[in-house]
Specification:
There is one protein chain. The chain has 2 domains: 6-246, Aldolase class I (TIM Barrel), CATH 3.20.20; 256-335, no CATH class. It is 48% helix and 13% strand. The chain contains 15 helices and 10 strands. An 8-stranded parallel beta sheet has the order 3-10-9-8-7-6-5-4. A two-stranded antiparallel ribbon has the order 1-2. α9 links the parallel β9 (201-204) and β10 (224-227). The protein binds flavin mononucleotide. Flavin mononucleotide binds at residues 19-24, 44-45, 74, 101, 103-104, 143, 173, 204-207, 227-230.
Protein backbone atom coordinates (compact mmCIF):
# COMPACT_ATOMS: atom_id res chain seq x y z
CA UNK A 1 0.00 0.00 0.00
CA UNK A 2 2.89 2.38 -0.58
CA UNK A 3 2.18 3.56 -4.14
CA UNK A 4 0.89 7.13 -4.13
CA UNK A 5 -2.75 7.78 -4.75
CA UNK A 6 -4.04 10.82 -6.63
CA UNK A 7 -7.36 12.61 -6.57
CA UNK A 8 -7.24 14.84 -9.59
CA UNK A 9 -3.76 16.31 -9.39
CA UNK A 10 -3.57 15.96 -5.61
CA UNK A 11 -1.17 13.35 -4.42
CA UNK A 12 -2.49 12.03 -1.12
CA UNK A 13 0.03 12.03 1.73
CA UNK A 14 -1.43 8.71 2.87
CA UNK A 15 -4.28 6.30 2.26
CA UNK A 16 -5.87 7.21 5.56
CA UNK A 17 -8.51 9.93 5.30
CA UNK A 18 -10.39 11.74 8.04
CA UNK A 19 -14.19 11.56 7.87
CA UNK A 20 -16.44 14.62 7.75
CA UNK A 21 -18.10 15.04 11.15
CA UNK A 22 -20.58 17.81 11.69
CA UNK A 23 -19.74 19.75 14.83
CA UNK A 24 -16.33 18.04 15.02
CA UNK A 25 -14.15 18.50 11.90
CA UNK A 26 -14.20 22.28 12.01
CA UNK A 27 -11.14 24.24 10.98
CA UNK A 28 -9.48 24.10 14.43
CA UNK A 29 -9.67 20.28 14.51
CA UNK A 30 -8.68 19.94 10.85
CA UNK A 31 -5.58 22.04 11.60
CA UNK A 32 -4.66 19.65 14.39
CA UNK A 33 -5.36 16.54 12.31
CA UNK A 34 -3.29 17.82 9.44
CA UNK A 35 -0.21 17.70 11.70
CA UNK A 36 -0.37 13.91 11.43
CA UNK A 37 -0.49 13.87 7.63
CA UNK A 38 -3.68 12.05 6.69
CA UNK A 39 -4.45 11.81 2.96
CA UNK A 40 -7.13 14.42 3.44
CA UNK A 41 -9.54 15.73 6.03
CA UNK A 42 -13.11 16.43 4.92
CA UNK A 43 -14.92 19.52 6.23
CA UNK A 44 -18.16 19.29 8.16
CA UNK A 45 -21.07 19.06 5.75
CA UNK A 46 -22.05 22.47 4.41
CA UNK A 47 -25.71 23.09 3.49
CA UNK A 48 -25.50 24.08 -0.18
CA UNK A 49 -28.33 26.61 -0.21
CA UNK A 50 -27.31 28.54 2.88
CA UNK A 51 -23.69 28.47 1.77
CA UNK A 52 -24.60 29.89 -1.64
CA UNK A 53 -26.66 32.60 0.01
CA UNK A 54 -23.62 33.56 2.07
CA UNK A 55 -24.56 32.51 5.62
CA UNK A 56 -21.97 32.82 8.35
CA UNK A 57 -22.36 29.15 9.16
CA UNK A 58 -21.47 28.17 5.61
CA UNK A 59 -18.36 30.32 5.73
CA UNK A 60 -17.40 28.91 9.11
CA UNK A 61 -17.79 25.27 8.06
CA UNK A 62 -15.98 25.66 4.75
CA UNK A 63 -13.04 27.63 6.15
CA UNK A 64 -9.49 26.48 5.57
CA UNK A 65 -8.29 28.07 2.32
CA UNK A 66 -4.55 28.56 2.37
CA UNK A 67 -4.18 26.36 5.44
CA UNK A 68 -5.70 22.98 4.78
CA UNK A 69 -4.24 21.22 1.79
CA UNK A 70 -6.03 19.69 0.03
CA UNK A 71 -9.10 21.59 1.20
CA UNK A 72 -12.10 19.28 0.85
CA UNK A 73 -15.51 20.90 1.29
CA UNK A 74 -18.45 18.56 1.68
CA UNK A 75 -21.82 19.75 0.38
CA UNK A 76 -25.21 18.49 1.44
CA UNK A 77 -28.56 19.32 -0.14
CA UNK A 78 -31.47 18.02 -2.15
CA UNK A 79 -31.77 20.54 -4.92
CA UNK A 80 -29.50 20.13 -7.96
CA UNK A 81 -29.63 23.90 -8.53
CA UNK A 82 -28.35 24.73 -5.06
CA UNK A 83 -25.82 21.92 -5.17
CA UNK A 84 -24.43 23.40 -8.39
CA UNK A 85 -24.32 26.83 -6.76
CA UNK A 86 -22.78 25.30 -3.65
CA UNK A 87 -20.04 23.72 -5.76
CA UNK A 88 -19.33 27.06 -7.40
CA UNK A 89 -19.06 28.73 -4.01
CA UNK A 90 -16.92 25.90 -2.66
CA UNK A 91 -14.44 26.42 -5.47
CA UNK A 92 -14.49 30.17 -4.85
CA UNK A 93 -13.86 29.48 -1.15
CA UNK A 94 -10.68 27.63 -2.10
CA UNK A 95 -11.83 24.00 -2.24
CA UNK A 96 -9.41 21.69 -4.03
CA UNK A 97 -11.95 18.86 -3.93
CA UNK A 98 -15.74 18.95 -3.51
CA UNK A 99 -17.38 16.02 -1.72
CA UNK A 100 -21.08 15.15 -1.85
CA UNK A 101 -22.83 13.86 1.26
CA UNK A 102 -25.06 10.85 0.55
CA UNK A 103 -24.36 9.17 3.85
CA UNK A 104 -25.77 11.30 6.62
CA UNK A 105 -28.63 9.48 8.38
CA UNK A 106 -29.79 12.41 10.53
CA UNK A 107 -33.55 12.89 10.36
CA UNK A 108 -33.14 16.62 9.89
CA UNK A 109 -31.07 15.93 6.78
CA UNK A 110 -32.99 12.86 5.59
CA UNK A 111 -36.33 14.62 6.17
CA UNK A 112 -35.11 17.12 3.60
CA UNK A 113 -34.37 14.23 1.21
CA UNK A 114 -30.67 14.78 1.40
CA UNK A 115 -27.83 12.81 2.97
CA UNK A 116 -28.47 9.07 2.77
CA UNK A 117 -32.12 9.59 1.72
CA UNK A 118 -30.75 10.25 -1.76
CA UNK A 119 -29.76 6.60 -2.02
CA UNK A 120 -33.51 5.85 -2.25
CA UNK A 121 -33.89 8.28 -5.12
CA UNK A 122 -31.13 7.47 -7.58
CA UNK A 123 -32.49 9.78 -10.29
CA UNK A 124 -32.39 12.78 -7.97
CA UNK A 125 -29.00 11.65 -6.70
CA UNK A 126 -27.66 11.65 -10.27
CA UNK A 127 -29.14 15.09 -10.97
CA UNK A 128 -27.37 16.36 -7.87
CA UNK A 129 -24.07 14.86 -8.93
CA UNK A 130 -24.47 16.43 -12.38
CA UNK A 131 -25.23 19.76 -10.73
CA UNK A 132 -22.09 19.62 -8.62
CA UNK A 133 -19.96 18.60 -11.60
CA UNK A 134 -21.38 21.52 -13.57
CA UNK A 135 -20.64 23.93 -10.72
CA UNK A 136 -16.94 23.16 -10.37
CA UNK A 137 -13.87 22.12 -12.34
CA UNK A 138 -12.38 20.61 -9.19
CA UNK A 139 -12.45 16.84 -8.59
CA UNK A 140 -15.79 15.68 -7.18
CA UNK A 141 -16.01 12.83 -4.69
CA UNK A 142 -18.97 11.08 -3.07
CA UNK A 143 -19.56 9.63 0.37
CA UNK A 144 -22.40 7.20 0.92
CA UNK A 145 -23.69 4.24 2.89
CA UNK A 146 -24.34 0.65 1.72
CA UNK A 147 -27.91 1.61 0.88
CA UNK A 148 -31.11 2.67 2.61
CA UNK A 149 -31.71 -0.71 4.27
CA UNK A 150 -30.68 -4.32 3.77
CA UNK A 151 -33.32 -4.79 1.06
CA UNK A 152 -31.76 -2.06 -1.03
CA UNK A 153 -28.00 -2.34 -0.90
CA UNK A 154 -27.55 -0.20 -3.98
CA UNK A 155 -24.17 1.45 -3.29
CA UNK A 156 -22.52 -0.42 -6.21
CA UNK A 157 -25.21 0.79 -8.67
CA UNK A 158 -25.02 4.36 -7.45
CA UNK A 159 -21.23 4.18 -7.55
CA UNK A 160 -21.18 2.95 -11.17
CA UNK A 161 -23.53 5.68 -12.30
CA UNK A 162 -21.74 8.37 -10.30
CA UNK A 163 -18.37 7.39 -11.76
CA UNK A 164 -19.96 7.37 -15.22
CA UNK A 165 -20.88 11.01 -14.66
CA UNK A 166 -17.38 11.98 -13.49
CA UNK A 167 -17.07 11.30 -9.74
CA UNK A 168 -13.43 10.36 -9.17
CA UNK A 169 -13.35 8.86 -5.68
CA UNK A 170 -15.86 7.27 -3.33
CA UNK A 171 -16.14 6.46 0.33
CA UNK A 172 -18.58 3.86 1.60
CA UNK A 173 -19.59 3.65 5.25
CA UNK A 174 -20.33 -0.04 5.81
CA UNK A 175 -23.80 0.46 7.27
CA UNK A 176 -27.23 1.16 5.85
CA UNK A 177 -29.15 4.31 6.63
CA UNK A 178 -31.59 2.34 8.74
CA UNK A 179 -28.78 1.06 10.93
CA UNK A 180 -27.76 4.60 11.91
CA UNK A 181 -24.70 3.68 14.00
CA UNK A 182 -26.04 0.32 15.28
CA UNK A 183 -24.36 -3.03 14.70
CA UNK A 184 -20.92 -3.38 13.18
CA UNK A 185 -19.80 -1.81 9.93
CA UNK A 186 -19.71 -4.47 7.20
CA UNK A 187 -16.36 -3.97 5.51
CA UNK A 188 -16.83 -7.00 3.27
CA UNK A 189 -20.00 -5.52 1.82
CA UNK A 190 -18.07 -2.36 0.93
CA UNK A 191 -16.03 -4.64 -1.34
CA UNK A 192 -18.99 -4.88 -3.75
CA UNK A 193 -18.63 -1.20 -4.48
CA UNK A 194 -14.85 -1.47 -4.70
CA UNK A 195 -15.27 -4.13 -7.42
CA UNK A 196 -17.99 -2.20 -9.25
CA UNK A 197 -15.87 0.81 -10.22
CA UNK A 198 -12.39 1.64 -11.40
CA UNK A 199 -11.79 4.69 -9.20
CA UNK A 200 -10.41 4.56 -5.65
CA UNK A 201 -12.99 3.53 -3.03
CA UNK A 202 -12.33 4.13 0.67
CA UNK A 203 -13.82 1.94 3.39
CA UNK A 204 -15.33 3.65 6.43
CA UNK A 205 -16.96 2.66 9.71
CA UNK A 206 -15.64 1.50 13.10
CA UNK A 207 -11.96 1.82 12.22
CA UNK A 208 -10.19 2.84 15.42
CA UNK A 209 -6.74 1.28 15.20
CA UNK A 210 -4.14 0.23 12.68
CA UNK A 211 -5.24 -3.39 13.07
CA UNK A 212 -8.85 -2.43 12.28
CA UNK A 213 -7.62 -0.52 9.23
CA UNK A 214 -5.66 -3.48 7.89
CA UNK A 215 -8.65 -5.80 8.42
CA UNK A 216 -11.01 -3.36 6.75
CA UNK A 217 -8.67 -3.16 3.76
CA UNK A 218 -8.32 -6.93 3.55
CA UNK A 219 -12.06 -7.53 3.78
CA UNK A 220 -13.07 -4.82 1.33
CA UNK A 221 -10.13 -4.58 -1.07
CA UNK A 222 -10.52 -0.79 -0.76
CA UNK A 223 -7.82 1.69 -1.80
CA UNK A 224 -7.67 3.14 1.69
CA UNK A 225 -9.61 3.86 4.86
CA UNK A 226 -11.56 6.79 6.24
CA UNK A 227 -11.57 7.26 10.02
CA UNK A 228 -13.95 9.42 12.05
CA UNK A 229 -14.94 8.93 15.67
CA UNK A 230 -11.74 7.08 16.54
CA UNK A 231 -9.79 10.33 16.29
CA UNK A 232 -11.86 12.40 18.70
CA UNK A 233 -9.74 12.95 21.81
CA UNK A 234 -6.76 11.18 20.23
CA UNK A 235 -5.99 12.67 16.82
CA UNK A 236 -2.46 11.22 17.14
CA UNK A 237 -4.00 7.77 16.58
CA UNK A 238 -3.57 8.66 12.91
CA UNK A 239 0.18 7.95 13.26
CA UNK A 240 -0.33 4.32 14.18
CA UNK A 241 -3.10 3.79 11.62
CA UNK A 242 -1.05 5.34 8.81
CA UNK A 243 2.04 3.28 9.72
CA UNK A 244 0.05 0.01 9.74
CA UNK A 245 -1.63 0.80 6.43
CA UNK A 246 1.81 1.58 4.96
CA UNK A 247 3.21 -1.68 6.36
CA UNK A 248 5.69 0.29 8.49
CA UNK A 249 6.71 -0.42 12.10
CA UNK A 250 4.42 0.98 14.79
CA UNK A 251 5.73 4.44 15.73
CA UNK A 252 6.79 5.26 19.27
CA UNK A 253 3.85 6.74 21.19
CA UNK A 254 3.69 10.49 20.95
CA UNK A 255 5.49 12.12 23.90
CA UNK A 256 3.41 13.50 26.78
CA UNK A 257 4.69 16.97 25.88
CA UNK A 258 3.46 16.63 22.33
CA UNK A 259 0.06 15.27 23.42
CA UNK A 260 -0.33 18.21 25.80
CA UNK A 261 0.61 20.57 22.99
CA UNK A 262 -1.98 18.99 20.65
CA UNK A 263 -4.78 19.22 23.21
CA UNK A 264 -3.99 22.77 24.35
CA UNK A 265 -3.39 24.09 20.82
CA UNK A 266 -6.68 22.55 19.73
CA UNK A 267 -8.48 24.24 22.61
CA UNK A 268 -6.88 27.60 21.89
CA UNK A 269 -7.58 27.40 18.13
CA UNK A 270 -11.23 26.65 18.91
CA UNK A 271 -11.58 29.65 21.23
CA UNK A 272 -9.89 31.89 18.67
CA UNK A 273 -12.01 30.67 15.75
CA UNK A 274 -15.55 31.10 17.13
CA UNK A 275 -17.45 33.81 18.95
CA UNK A 276 -16.95 33.31 22.71
CA UNK A 277 -20.10 31.30 23.60
CA UNK A 278 -19.88 29.01 20.62
CA UNK A 279 -16.17 28.51 21.14
CA UNK A 280 -16.69 27.34 24.71
CA UNK A 281 -19.50 25.00 23.62
CA UNK A 282 -17.60 23.40 20.75
CA UNK A 283 -14.38 23.14 22.76
CA UNK A 284 -16.14 21.22 25.54
CA UNK A 285 -16.86 18.29 23.22
CA UNK A 286 -13.18 17.97 22.46
CA UNK A 287 -12.09 18.51 26.06
CA UNK A 288 -14.40 15.61 26.99
CA UNK A 289 -12.80 13.58 24.20
CA UNK A 290 -9.26 14.22 25.47
CA UNK A 291 -10.31 13.31 29.02
CA UNK A 292 -12.11 10.14 27.92
CA UNK A 293 -9.16 8.90 25.87
CA UNK A 294 -6.35 9.62 28.29
CA UNK A 295 -5.31 6.07 29.20
CA UNK A 296 -3.35 7.17 32.25
CA UNK A 297 -6.49 8.42 34.05
CA UNK A 298 -8.72 6.34 36.31
CA UNK A 299 -12.51 6.44 36.03
CA UNK A 300 -12.86 8.69 39.11
CA UNK A 301 -10.35 11.15 37.75
CA UNK A 302 -12.15 11.24 34.44
CA UNK A 303 -15.52 12.00 36.02
CA UNK A 304 -14.05 14.68 38.27
CA UNK A 305 -12.20 16.31 35.38
CA UNK A 306 -15.22 16.18 33.07
CA UNK A 307 -17.39 17.75 35.77
CA UNK A 308 -14.92 20.56 36.19
CA UNK A 309 -13.34 21.25 32.79
CA UNK A 310 -16.48 20.77 30.71
CA UNK A 311 -18.41 23.31 32.79
CA UNK A 312 -16.03 26.05 33.75
CA UNK A 313 -15.67 29.22 31.72
CA UNK A 314 -12.19 29.74 33.14
CA UNK A 315 -10.23 28.96 29.99
CA UNK A 316 -6.84 29.21 31.73
CA UNK A 317 -7.97 26.49 34.13
CA UNK A 318 -9.01 24.27 31.19
CA UNK A 319 -5.61 24.76 29.55
CA UNK A 320 -3.91 23.87 32.82
CA UNK A 321 -6.15 20.80 33.24
CA UNK A 322 -5.42 19.64 29.70
CA UNK A 323 -1.69 19.94 30.32
CA UNK A 324 -1.97 18.06 33.64
CA UNK A 325 -3.75 15.13 31.97
CA UNK A 326 -0.58 14.33 30.06
CA UNK A 327 2.20 15.91 32.10
CA UNK A 328 1.10 15.50 35.72
CA UNK A 329 -1.52 12.73 35.90
CA UNK A 330 -0.28 11.86 39.43
CA UNK A 331 -1.11 15.34 40.64
CA UNK A 332 -4.63 14.78 39.33
CA UNK A 333 -4.81 11.54 41.29
CA UNK A 334 -4.20 13.44 44.52
CA UNK A 335 -6.78 16.06 43.64
CA UNK A 336 -9.47 13.58 42.53
C1 LIG B 1 -20.84 13.57 15.16
C2 LIG B 1 -20.83 13.03 13.74
C3 LIG B 1 -21.05 13.90 12.70
C4 LIG B 1 -21.04 13.43 11.37
N1 LIG B 1 -21.20 14.31 10.36
C5 LIG B 1 -21.08 13.89 9.07
C6 LIG B 1 -21.10 14.81 7.99
O1 LIG B 1 -21.16 16.03 8.18
N2 LIG B 1 -21.01 14.30 6.73
C7 LIG B 1 -20.89 12.96 6.48
O2 LIG B 1 -20.81 12.55 5.32
N3 LIG B 1 -20.85 12.07 7.49
C8 LIG B 1 -20.91 12.50 8.77
N4 LIG B 1 -20.78 11.61 9.80
C9 LIG B 1 -20.48 10.21 9.49
C10 LIG B 1 -18.96 9.97 9.51
O3 LIG B 1 -18.34 10.67 8.45
C11 LIG B 1 -18.61 8.47 9.38
O4 LIG B 1 -19.16 8.00 8.17
C12 LIG B 1 -19.17 7.64 10.52
O5 LIG B 1 -18.94 8.25 11.77
C13 LIG B 1 -18.56 6.23 10.53
O6 LIG B 1 -17.16 6.28 10.65
P1 LIG B 1 -16.42 6.08 12.08
O7 LIG B 1 -16.92 4.78 12.66
O8 LIG B 1 -14.95 6.03 11.74
O9 LIG B 1 -16.78 7.24 12.95
C14 LIG B 1 -20.82 12.05 11.11
C15 LIG B 1 -20.62 11.19 12.19
C16 LIG B 1 -20.59 11.66 13.48
C17 LIG B 1 -20.34 10.70 14.61
Amino acid sequence: MDSPLYIGKHRLASRVLVAPMSGITDLPFRRILQRFQPGLVVSEMVASEGFSRGTGEGRERSAGAGEIDPLVIQLVGRDPYWMREGARHAEAAGAHIVDINMGCPARKVVGGQSGSALMREPELAMAIIEGVLEGTHKPVTLKMRLGWDHDSLNAPDIARRAVGLGVCMLTVHGRTRCQFYEGDADWEMVGKTVRAVDVPVFVNGDIQTGTDAVQALEQSGAAGVMVGRGLVGRPWALREIIAKVNGEPTPEPLSADDMADVATSHYQYTLDFYPVRKGLRVARKHVAGYIDHAPQLGEDQRSALRAELCRTEDTERVLEGLRDIYLRPDALEVAA
